[in-house]
Write a structure and sequence with these properties.
Elements (H helix, E strand, L loop, with lengths): L1 H8 L10 E11 L2 E10 L3 E6 L8 E10 L2 E16 L5 E10 L1 H11 L1
């Protein structure tokens, strides 16, 4: 009887869109300057990239990248916050950034990439 109560109250959790690999160059504009970056993965919520310098967690900046997808050049420009920064061997530092503000054109480019 307890098993019936437990299984009947469990609702499936909808999965968020998964991140997609995207090999592209990007620029990360921070208050201290602009860093060149290599994009690793992108999702609707954020982006993972490699940079040559350590960046403090919580640091706010702007991510800009262009990529060719589905027969057209797409551009993303979004405000983002550094969630984590870790040394990743010869690749430099791996940053995980969470998007905090995405304009409509960038949101369309992300949607096209992630569908």
């Amino acid at each position: 009887m307890l098993q019936e109560l437990v299984t009947s109250s469990v609702q499936p959790v909808p999965r968020m869109r998964r991140a997609k690999p995207l090999r592209s160059r990007a620029k990360l504009q921070l208050p201290r300057g602009i860093l060149d970056a290599e994009v690793e993965r992108v999702s609707a919520l954020g982006i993972s990239m490699f940079v040559s310098e350590k960046v403090a967690e919580g640091q706010a900046g702007t991510v800009r990248l262009s990529f060719f997808f589905d027969g057209a050049m797409r551009q993303i420009s979004a405000a983002a916050e550094v969630v984590s920064c870790s040394l990743s061997g010869m690749n430099g530092f791996r940053l995980a950034l969470r998007f905090t503000d995405v304009d409509a054109q960038s949101a369309q480019a992300l949607d096209a990439l992630l569908r």
